[in-house]
Amino acid sequence: MPRFEKIRSSNGFIISTICFASFTDAFIYGVIVPVLPYSLNEQAGVSDNSVQFWSSVLLAAFGLAQFLFSPLFGYLADHSSSRKKPFLLGFLATAAATGLLYSAQNVWLMACSRFLQGLSAAIAYTIGFALLADTVDASDLGMCIGCVISSLNVGMIISPTLGGILYAKFGYKSLFIAIFALIAIDVLLRLVLIEKRQLSSITERRELQRSRGEGSEYGTFQSMFNEAANQEGSGTPSSDDDLTVLIPQPEDTSTEVAYHHHYAIPLVTLMKSPRILTSLYGTWVSLAILGSFDAALPIFVEKQFSWGPIGGGLIFLTLTCPSTLSPLAGKLSDKFPSRWLTSLWFILSGASLFHLLLVKDDTITSKSQTILLCFFLTLYGFTMSFGTTPLGADLNQAVESIEIENPDIFSGANVSAQVYSLYTSACAAGILFGPLWTSVAFGIWGWTFYVLSLGVLSVSVAIPVLLFHRPENDFPVGIEI
Predict the structure, then answer these.
(1) Which DSSP category does 442 fall into?
(2) pTM exceeds cut of 0.85
(3) What is the pLDDT of residue 65?
(4) pLDDT (tens digit, 9 = 90+) per residue, 386-425?
(5) Alpha-carbon distance 349 to 382, whole Å?
(6) In angstroms, rounded to a whole number, what is the distance separating the alpha carbons of residues 55 and 41?
(7) Helix crossing, 339-354 with 366-405: angle to 10°?
(8) Taking 90 as the threshold, does the pLDDT of residue 153 lie above it?
(9) Per-residue pLDDT tens over the stretch 257-280
(10) Residue 12 CB contacts under 8 Å (≥ 6 apart), including other chains
(11) Distance in Å from the first CA to the final CA of the chain
């Protein structure tokens, strides 16, 4: 029997492992962001005129892999006997991606390494969210998802800060010392973890062994009889089976019902739900904006304020600090669900983005521009954390609503990994779109058009949230639709 199984299978340990896995993958994604312009130039020999283009391509390669493979891993996880086995596969992709990025001497190998890292993220996020849904009660799911989202956001946003500092102080290789240290801790936690369904099997085996031990006083024949009786596929009928033979039973139509519903592919069924699509759209928008900032902010502060890699990394702290409030946002959404409040957060986040126009106002000093940039980025991070966290928590509840309306629609299968694979794909699509949009909106049309487009995108989420996010009985008292 495994040692310390109670600790290794506890909710706290499982949630901590998922959070750390999300943090690690996000950290590895973001740690290279502020040094991309320099590493492309020095490591891969890219000209200065092409740095912006290839920076966006490398960031988009990560999102493309995550977008393409998340549904596949979600399907495999729902049809696997264990969440842990595919969860461990992500380690191999992470190690390969990091090793390739460390040794890459041309831009195509760097792109391949980011693609492999996106593959790892598809596994970590999809399996992680599904494992979370299997572990905690529905009443606590919002807060726990908030913890994972907070870990993801902290990893994604703090890593550019640390990456810029490490690169400036200790050089390019120092980045990979930090990366490999995180990978070592991550894989150790994944190996030690015992999921709930595995714990049930361990408990059953222990009880079986105890029952065999209690029967030992009856001699060897009795022990052999007990073992034979507990073999899977035993042909010995139980008393219930005997009654079934004697009493005529109605024709079993469960096979026919299941057959008629096998045509409904779970992913297709899930994507037909306006409620699920609303959550996916809001998630896509938030990650698109974050991914866009990853590509734009280091370049903007370099041109506007002449900041170096350290400054280009430190600016992301304005987004990191508010994201740590995601668990609180999830807890509030569990206790006081409201589509009105969620939509309001997206409107406020759009307003904070619109006010970034003031940063380019030539009538104010450079110091005032810096203060305004930091303030409105912080305000955006706060409002977006409280807006997006309820969307992730609502996915599991949306699936339960679908199953209540039509209990046989998924033929009794667990589809939690598949619905969260859509969530992960939405995140990836945002990461894929964000840098590409930056290369067009910011690279060609400038800061003014860029921040206006992001503001409109954020505000647009409020409309489907009001229409589809929560059922009518989740509205505050006195409000009807």
Answers:
(1) I
(2) no
(3) 87
(4) 888 888 878 878 888 888 888 878 776 678 778 888 888 8
(5) 8
(6) 11
(7) 150
(8) no
(9) 333 344 457 878 888 889 999 999
(10) none
(11) 56
CA-CA distance, 477 to 75, in Å (whole number)? Answer: 40
Task: Rounding to the nearest 10 degrees, give the CA dihedral for residues 433, 434, 439, 445.
Answer: 110
**What pLDDT is stored for residue 254 in this prediction?**
40
- CA–CA separation, 202 vs 209, rounded Å? 11
Write down the residue that tokens 């009654």 correspond to: 243
Rg of the chain over CA atoms, in angstroms? 26
Using the Cα atoms of residue 424, residue 428, residue 434 and residue 437 in order, give the sign of their dihedral: negative
Torsion of CA 447, 452, 457, 458, to 10 degrees: 100
**Of 331 and 345, the one with more pLDDT:** 345
413: tokens are 């299968």
Q: Do 65 and 118 form a contact (C-beta atoms < 8 A)? A: yes
The dihedral built from the CA positions of residue 218, 220, 225 and 226, taken in this order, carries a sign that is positive
The answer on pLDDT for 218 being more than 90 is: no
What secondary structure letter does DSSP report for 409?
T
- Report whether 355 contacts 376 (CB < 8 A): yes
